Every structure is written in structure tokens, then in C-alpha cells.
Amino acid sequence: MNSIKFHSKALVKTIKAKAEDGLQMSEVFLVACGGSLVDLYPAKFFLMSESCLLRTDLYTANEFVHAVPRVLGERSIVILCSHSGGTPELIEAVKVAKAAGALTVTLTYNKASDIAAFSDHNVVYEWGDESSVQNNPMAITLALCLEILQQSEGYAYYDEFQEALQKIDDVVATACKKVSERAVTFAETYRNGKLFYTLSSGASYGHAYGFAICSLMEMQWLHASAIHSGEFFHGPFEVTDQKTNFIVLLNEGRTRPLDERVIVFLKRYAKNYVVIDAKELGIDLLPESVVEFFNPILFYSVLCVYREALAKIRNHPLEKRRYMDIVEY
After folding, report:
1. What predicted TM-score, i.e. pTM, was given to this entire model?
2. What is the DSSP letter of 125?
3. By three-state DSSP, how is residue 8 classified?
């Protein structure tokens, strides 16, 4: 049994037991920091899109601690992710959730994590080049939220979602091979770039944000900012010229027209832009009814190929830091 099924079954058992005691879950809060917060964004978009009954929100951990949602309580599920398992803000957040009586689920890569001691359910996920994306935090959180939705009110496309979870690894592996040469070209073209705007929509907006703050700002010390494709024409497009760099993550699904509108504009008024099209990379092999929720899983793995190529040509290793875990902050 893979980790998704194991942890989903354990969570379902707990939810059912609470329902039998008269406690129907009514809120799902997704809490993390940085890259881990990005991993939770697709689940937030999924529940906000598909649930009629569940209140859902995404919190950066320190804000969750300092501005606790008033509704937080015994009918709440709080899912928290910390790669190291020792992020101080996350440990405080899970303590806050537990004190309020919420059901807590933590995700971490660290088998000996500090955060596990404070949660009702702890999930140790896979990581690294050889890991299955199905058992990475983004897919696991989606799978957990699928089960929460199914138990709370049912979900018409439950079977299709499960099918997509089984297929996503093959789709991602094929896409990463397909972009290997493109990534080298990207790195050669933009090796001297100093500022990048990343754009996307739907479930993938979180990853446009993540690529900006983690891959470019943290790992390459480059200036970057994420823009929602739907907001581009409400101010940001005024910076468009022949020198500005744009990266557009083109989704497959309901919000694709938002991304396509940006691309049409860039073709006319910009020069330096890169489009990464999930459909062209094979995401449409997944069931149409749920494909949009899997775009960011594909984009994350594909953009790892791009950032590795950029790091190599710039001679700036991805793990290089000047402040993080080095100075006091």
C-alpha cells in the first residue's frame, strides 16, 4: 500500500469517528511556510473550487499563530507541512491548532521530526530525484483533501481523481525528458537576466509564486515576482517592454483562457518570454474533469529542470545561501 492510501485511510477513520460523535468537520486550514506553503496551494484551490460545505483557507504559519482564525476549533482540520519538521513557526502553529481542539495532520520529510510529536497524524513523504511525485507533499495533500471532501459531502469525480493520481508520475517523467534541451536553451538565453515575472492561474498560481520566491530569489539571488494571469491586465502589464523577462505557466483546464490572454499580449508587445504549456507536455492524458488540479505537480518537476540548468550555467549552486540558516533572523 502506498503512503497516500495508508494516510488517507487513517484520516478517514478519524473523521468518521468524530462524525459519529456529532462532530462534522466544517473547516480545513492549510498551514506552512515558503516552498511547503506552495505545496499546499493546489489543495486549497481544489477545496475552494469543489466544496459546497467546507470553509478552506491557506495560511503562512506565523500569521496563523498571530492572527488565529476565530472559527478554529474541534470541527477544524489543520494540515501543516514542514520539510525539516523543525520549522519554529510550524511547531507553534500546530500547538495553536491542538490547543483549539482541531484535528491536526503534519507532513514532513524528516522521520525524526519535532513537529510529529504535536500532531494527530504525521505523514513522512518521499523527496528527491528518485521519489514518486505521487508520494511528494503536493500530491499527498491533494489526496488527503480529496478524502476530506468525499467524507464531508461526496465528490462526483472521486474515481477520476484517483485515476489521475495513479497516472501523474508517468506524465511528469515524460514531460521532464521533453524539456531537457529547452531548459538548457532557457539558461543560455537568460543567464544574465536580473528580474523575472512569473505568471499563472488556477491551481498553478501558487507555483508561479513558489518559482519566484524559492527557485529564483532564494536559490539564485535573482529579483522575481509572481503575477496572477487574471490580474496582469489590471496594472502589471504596464511594465511590458522588449527587455522585461516573463515566464508563463499555461494551464490545462478552466483557467487556461486567462493564461492564453497574457500570451497573446506578450507576443505583440514583449520579446523575452517563455511559455511552459502543461497540455503540450502531456497533462491532458489525465481525466478532463480533474486535470486542472494536477497542473502544478507537472510544473514543479518541469521547472526543477529549468532551475538546475540555470544554476549550472550561472555557476550558482541551488543550495547556496548567505542568510538562511546562517545568520540569526
Report:
1. 0.95
2. -
3. helix
